[in-house]
Inverse folding.
C-alpha cells in the first residue's frame, strides 16, 4: 500500500532577459494565484532581481515600481560611468534596491534563494547563496560593458547569463523536487541557421536582387546623393546594438545547451519578441505576457504536482 507523501518542493528558475524580466512578476503572480507556491527560487540577471524580491517578500513593491516606469524615468536611472569600466555606473539602481531590501542577506530570506554570476577572468559560475542581497543582485545583472563588475566575496563578478542563463541546476541543488524554468529569449530573434558562402555570385537574397537598381531605374547622378541618408539595411549596426545582440546570441546558445543537459520539469516560454531588451517602461504588457505564459502550461504543471504528491 502506498502512503501519500507531502507535496513536492517546487523550485522556480527565472532566466535572464533584461527588460523582458518584468514578465517574471506575472509568472510568479499567476503561479501563486493558482495555488502553486514556489519553495525555492533562483535567478540570473533580471531573473535574480525578481527572484530576490520575491524571496524577500517584496514582489508587490517591485511590481509597483516596474509599473511606474516611463521612458524618461528609465533614462534618469542610467547614470553614466566615467571610470572607463562600463557605460553605466549603476549607483542609482543600487540605491533603489538598497532602499527596498536594506541590509538583507541572502541566507536570511524566508525561502531559499540563490543568484548566479560569472567570475571575471576565470569564467567560473558563481552561486551566490550567502552575503549581502543587494550586492549579489547587482553582480548577477552586471552586463559586461554596460554595468561595472561587482566585487563579492573577494571575486570580481558580472552577469550570470554568460554561464547559466536559466539556473535549473541551482534550484535542484537547493532541494527542489519539481523545477519550473522561465526562459525569456528562446523564441524571440535568435533562430540561428547556417548560411554557406554568402559572398558567392548568385547567392544574394531575392529581395536584395529585386531592390537592386538597374540602368533603367537608377536615378541620375547628383552631388546631393552624398548627403542623402543611406537606407537602414545598408547602415552598419551601432555599438550598443552590436554588443547587446552579441551577448544575447551567446546567452541563447548557452541556455539551449544548459536546458538540454538539465531540463526542467516544466518550461515556460513567454512570447516576447516584440519587446525590446531595454523597454523597461512596458511592465504592464510584460506582466500580462508572463501570466499568459503560465496559463499555457498550467494543465501540465497541475498534473505533475498531483502525480508527485500521490507517488
Amino acid at each position: 500500500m502506498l502512503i501519500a507523501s507531502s507535496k513536492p518542493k517546487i523550485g522556480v528558475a527565472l532566466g535572464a532577459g533584461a527588460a523582458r524580466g518584468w514578465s517574471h512578476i506575472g509568472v510568479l503572480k499567476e503561479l501563486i494565484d493558482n495555488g502553486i507556491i514556489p519553495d525555492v527560487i533562483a535567478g540570473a540577471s533580471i531573473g535574480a532581481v525578481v527572484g530576490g524580491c520575491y524571496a524577500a517578500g517584496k514582489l508587490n513593491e517591485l511590481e509597483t515600481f516596474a509599473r511606474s516606469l516611463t521612458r524618461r524615468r528609465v533614462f534618469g536611472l542610467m547614470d553614466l560611468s566615467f571610470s572607463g569600466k562600463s557605460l553605466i555606473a549603476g549607483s542609482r539602481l543600487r540605491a533603489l534596491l538598497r532602499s527596498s531590501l536594506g541590509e538583507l542577506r541572502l541566507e536570511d530570506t524566508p525561502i531559499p534563494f540563490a543568484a548566479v554570476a560569472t567570475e571575471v577572468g576565470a569564467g567560473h559560475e558563481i552561486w551566490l547563496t550567502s552575503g549581502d542581497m543587494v550586492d549579489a543582485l547587482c553582480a548577477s545583472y552586471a552586463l559586461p560593458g554596460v554595468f561595472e563588475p561587482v566585487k563579492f566575496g573577494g571575486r570580481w563578478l558580472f552577469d550570470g547569463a554568460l554561464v547559466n542563463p536559466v539556473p535549473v541546476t541551482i534550484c535542484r541543488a537547493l532541494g527542489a523536487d519539481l523545477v519550473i524554468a522561465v526562459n525569456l529569449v528562446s523564441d524571440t530573434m535568435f533562430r540561428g541557421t547556417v548560411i554557406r558562402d554568402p559572398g558567392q555570385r548568385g547567392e544574394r537574397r531575392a529581395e536584395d536582387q529585386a531592390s537592386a537598381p538597374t540602368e533603367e531605374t537608377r536615378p541620375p547622378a547628383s552631388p546631393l546623393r552624398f548627403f542623402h541618408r543611406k537606407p537602414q539595411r545598408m547602415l552598419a549596426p551601432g555599438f550598443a546594438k552590436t554588443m547587446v545582440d552579441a551577448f544575447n546570441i551567446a546567452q541563447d546558445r548557452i541556455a539551449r545547451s544548459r536546458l538540454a543537459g538539465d531540463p526542467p520539469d516544466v518550461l515556460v516560454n513567454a512570447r516576447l519578441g516584440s519587446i525590446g531588451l531595454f523597454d523597461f517602461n512596458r511592465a504592464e504588457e510584460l506582466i500580462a505576457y508572463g501570466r499568459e505564459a503560465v496559463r499555457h502550461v498550467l494543465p501540465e504543471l497541475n498534473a505533475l504536482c498531483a502525480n508527485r504528491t500521490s507517488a
Summary: Residues 283-310 form the longest helix (28 residues). Residues 207-231 have pLDDT under 50 and may be disordered. The radius of gyration is 22 Å. The chain is about 40% helix and 15% strand.
